[in-house]
Design a protein that fits this description.
It comes from Coprinopsis marcescibilis. The protein has about 180 residues and is of the alpha+beta class. Helix content is about 50%, strand content about 15%.
Length: about 180
């Protein structure tokens, strides 16, 4: 009997420990496997916080699915974007600022990852999560239908950031295939 742990795009299967096993033992096993120092575990929408509590108290049972969310130790500062203004120029500036931040802060990290021979899962995960966050911020900007320039900038930004995510995913798949 086992439990499934979702970690990004991966699905990990672990043997279900005894119901009296404290959560700290599950965390330790996951940490040893993933090489992550800090992460959140989520089950049925709740964050599992108390490591001394037995897994039975969280109602974890055979065929349960846990979500593992890594916590990055030193998140890169992201520019504070102003609330969407009522002008097209302000929206275009907001989109351009987000793309410039990705180019300045994340593209060099992505290039470094692509050039290394040994994959660093933590770094790949961190860069992937930050790219996804940038993509979600761009997606949250909704220019009015009549703002053709803002809509075109948004579309180009989404394509650029998505292409970086695609490149990272292809690199991760290639690294995983090489390890087999």
């Amino acid at each position: 009997m086992s439990v499934t742990v979702k970690w990004g795009t991966e699905r990990l299967s672990f043997a279900l420990p005894a119901p009296s096993t404290p959560l700290s033992h599950v965390r330790k096993a996951l940490s040893d496997y993933t090489h992550l120092d800090a992460f959140k575990l989520i089950y049925n929408g709740a964050i599992l916080k108390d490591d001394d509590t037995p897994i039975s108290a969280y109602r974890i049972h055979a065929n349960s699915t846990l979500q593992l969310i890594p916590i990055t130790a030193a998140p890169q500062p992201q520019p504070q974007l102003q609330p969407v203004s009522a002008t097209e120029a302000a929206v275009v500036t907001q989109i351009q600022a987000e793309v410039a931040s990705v180019r300045q802060n994340l593209t060099p990290d992505l290039n470094r990852i692509l050039q290394t021979q040994v994959s660093d899962k933590k770094d790949e995960l961190r860069v992937g999560e930050l790219l996804l966050q940038a993509l979600l911020r761009i997606d949250g900007i909704s220019p009015e239908r009549s703002w053709d320039q803002a809509r075109a900038e948004r579309k180009a930004a989404v394509k650029e950031i998505q292409s970086l995510l695609d490149i990272l995913d292809a690199h991760k798949a290639k690294s995983a295939a090489a390890r087999r």
